[in-house]
Write a structure and sequence with these properties.
single chain, alpha/beta, five-stranded parallel β-sheet, four-stranded antiparallel β-sheet, 9 strands, 34% helix, 24% strand
């Protein structure tokens, strides 16, 4: 890949809902972070869904690492997504939540265990590996969700209002953790939020809609 070529290119990506038109046009470098900022109902999550492949666009293109992924199935895009609810599996403990995608890829048991233990140590939740999701705090759930996402080494991580369901003190603390994790792991990320201060803190760039 040419170093001058953007890592992520979103080109006139468009979805029409009757008379309402949601569109986006931006690019990101590798390891760069961006926040999509806008009020509720403005289409922020729709843009994320089109990038992730959860929603088919009516027009436009998405290129990731030089590859046109506009119409690829979500599982073929190498994109991770962290939802507001974290979307953890309640019937699995912490270890098995993080291991889930690795098991789906049929990796060897020893390799899965080594990768999961490494991630749990990295996010300082190794002591929680046998805990059930229902027993975790909001902050612990976020760490598990991010560890599970990073387990498959995605090229891009999309965060859909990851902090909005938390109280102010915890939100501030976890925003610092998210920023620290991104700096350490150097993943490319897009955050969706309606909070301008949160957007400015988390991201290198803002995209307002």
């Amino acid at each position: 890949m040419n170093t001058d070529t953007p890592f992520l290119q979103v080109i006139n990506l468009t979805k029409n809902f009757g008379e309402k038109k949601i569109s986006a046009n931006f690019s990101l470098k590798k390891s760069e972070t961006m926040a999509i900022l806008g009020p509720s109902g403005s289409g922020k999550s729709t843009i994320l869904s089109m990038i992730a492949g959860l929603l088919v666009p009516d027009a436009g293109s998405v290129f990731l690492d030089g590859i046109d992924i506009t119409f690829l199935k979500p599982y073929r895009r190498n994109i991770g997504m962290v939802f507001q609810s974290y979307a953890l599996f309640p019937h699995l403990n912490v270890f098995d939540n993080v291991a889930f995608a690795l098991k789906a890829k049929k990796e060897k048991k020893e390799e899965i265990e080594a990768q999961v233990i490494s991630l749990l140590k990295k996010f300082e939740i190794l002591d929680l590996k046998k805990r059930w999701v229902q027993e975790l705090s909001g902050g612990e759930k976020q760490r598990v969700a991010l560890a599970r996402t990073l387990a498959v080494q995605p090229k891009l991580i999309l965060f859909d209002e990851p902090l909005s369901a938390l109280d102010a003190d915890l939100r501030s603390h976890l925003a610092e953790e998210l920023k620290d994790f991104q700096r350490r792991e150097k993943y490319c990320a897009i955050y969706v939020t309606h909070d301008s201060r949160e957007a400015q803190f988390l991201a290198d760039r803002l995209y307002q809609i």
